[in-house]
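# nightly structure sweep
# worker-07 picked up a monomer target from the shared queue
# config: single-sequence mode, recycle default, output format = structure tokens
# input follows
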Amino acid sequence: MFVGEPAESRRYFWQAWRKHQAGARLEPLEVIVVNVISQHPEYHSLFAGDERSVCEYGVGLVAQNNPFFHLGLHIALHEQLQSDRPAGIRAHYQRQMITLGDNVHAAEHRIMKILTEVLLSAQSKGEMPDEGVYLAELASLV
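# output follows
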């Protein structure tokens, strides 16, 4: 989704949120970003402030310690579901929706927990994330 410096993608989050707050017309990707931020009232004060005043969040920090990583995971999962890539991700998501009584946010968080583990494992090894491991871990969710 976002390529470039972390500051650039973070700025995009702020710009989308500000456009939303002003009632301006949003681009399709901005709609996704705003929807994700809207689901997280704990981050609203962050986006109400000045983007330059935010401390740096390290790349390796887990989602609960880095709001941008967390929000980015939601967006990444959204893109995975739209394209069904890796193949079968939609079926795993639907199974979680059934298990969790159609609780979209809870289903996303369960999947994102595994996605985080796969991403951090790959990062620590200097490798690309293994889609097979990701899907296998998702299959093991009850």
